[in-house]
Design a protein that fits this description.
4 copies of one chain form a homotetramer.
Chain A lengths: L5 E6 L5 H16 L3 E4 L5 H11 L4 E5 L13 E4 L6 H7 L3 E5 L3 H12 L4 E4 L2 E5 L2 E3 L3 E2 L3 H11 L3
Parallel strand pairs in A: 1-2, 1-5, 2-3, 3-4, 5-6, 6-9
Antiparallel strand pairs in A: 7-8
Helix pairs in contact in A: 1-2, 1-5, 3-4
């Protein structure tokens, strides 16, 4: 296996402009630090992160839900065509050593859940927060900005 | 299609004794009201709900993650063997017209996420609560007891 | 688990009229012998088999590829909505103790392959035949008519 | 998307020594011609093909069935961890523009079936041959040696 870290960036396909900027900067910083970017391969946060990574010469992998590589955003270099719909959310996080969540809706929440269930660290940038049976769950590690999120993700990406 | 409603009961495989009692009563009430119970087929909340449903003559379906029907709890009448691991969580909720969540950990949270993402109503009995970007998300409909949970689920199970 | 055998019927969604008649008779005979019918839930051979089973009071399960129970044929009593596309072919055969293949195209062949790979007996009614590296593979057990196919399937459905 | 072709190499995990040699040469030739190799990530034919590709500086992707990247053979550079078992066979072929099958058993046959069902060309090196309803099916394109197989695959990898 090449000596690289695999980091997933997850988030919605209809981000705010601020979230898109954050995602692009996360992608750039991952590439600068030599990490390989994994995402769901579609638009919004996924596309912005890939765009950022590609601009710095990084490698981008898109794990697509549908039946065609044509659905990948134009910054995905390696499209994985799963044909299994949203069940591919499991593969997005399991293929990563750490996950960075940016905003996002219920699809993103399913990915956060799968990551935490698998013991994969999740770094959050203004995303979901969780309580279970009335008690705060602090498993999502907060970050204040893209650089901090990438630093934390890479430090935790050990398995 | 037979004139029945399909309701999923989700929750952890290591529930408290109180959660197990709640799950069993949910299963009984679903059966009394003629609904078909869908679950992940394993132990804990899933087993307690199936036990309750079977005791009242209800039908129980277990959508299993692994490769063998032998993993089903002994109250599952119809084991579906998917072989796709936790990706079967998607099938558990998509096969239901409403979902009742009892306690639960991250696997349960992935099922809640998938249900909400698919527009399937989720009724919660002392389970997860969610905030997104600092704002409370009230999509999980609370219930105070098993009877109320089943009533709400059946009323919302229209699609 | 209820004291029933689970038998999958697989085949194309555009069968010849003769294949559709065979499928319907297979469904009827499975129901007469008390077996539960599992199929992919869609049209063609799947629909004909479900129609036959229902006409004799049998139970029919359709494991659907898409996101909606509405895609099930009208003789499916228990629709399982997987959302995983053709990857559900694995669940169709793994949920059965024996498989009856009627004609069929490449989708059916993928199901035959999965069944044989899992050690699940496959009975063939004018379906695929296989050679590997120039040698005939006789794993698909031939049957001459629906009654013989059902008898062989039920005799082999022991695991 | 990078200007590369994606070719899947499929085959058993217990190949003959001759099959392993063929797989390694297929991997080498794919790399020489600039193609990216996709496979199921495990041993046997998959490992031999990855070894060959890596020896010529090629890129290797392993789409794994289980829950851990540790299961990848040591020549996989990009491990995709799906967690969906044999249902990942669908992703292996759908992620490719053409497929080269070397020997193989029922798992390989399921991949051949999925590829043909999706309209993805399959080149065969001493692998399965198929008859449907008593008529030979010539969809698997034969090749006599690794170089011919790679040439045919690359020529057909247009979609």
């Amino acid at each position: 296996m090449i000596n690289k870290k695999f980091i997933a960036v997850i988030g919605g396909n209809q981000p705010s402009s601020q979230e898109a900027k954050v995602a692009e900067e996360v992608g750039r910083e991952l590439a600068r630090q030599g990490a390989t970017l994994i995402c769901g391969g579609l638009g919004g946060v996924m596309e912005a992160a890939c765009k950022g990574a590609q601009s710095e010469g990084g490698v981008t992998i898109g794990i697509l839900p549908g039946d065609s590589r044509q659905a990948a955003n134009s910054y995905v270099q390696i499209p994985i065509v799963t044909g299994i719909g949203h069940a591919r959310n499991l593969a997005v996080v399991k293929s990563a050593q750490a996950v960075i969540a940016i905003g996002g809706s219920y699809g993103t929440l399913s990915e956060i859940s799968y990551a935490l269930n698998s013991g994969i660290p999740v770094i959050g940038l203004n995303t979901w927060s969780l309580s279970r049976k009335g008690h705060q769950d602090n498993s999502i590690i907060p970050a204040q900005n893209p650089i901090e999120a990438v630093d934390k993700a890479l430090n935790l990406a050990t398995s």
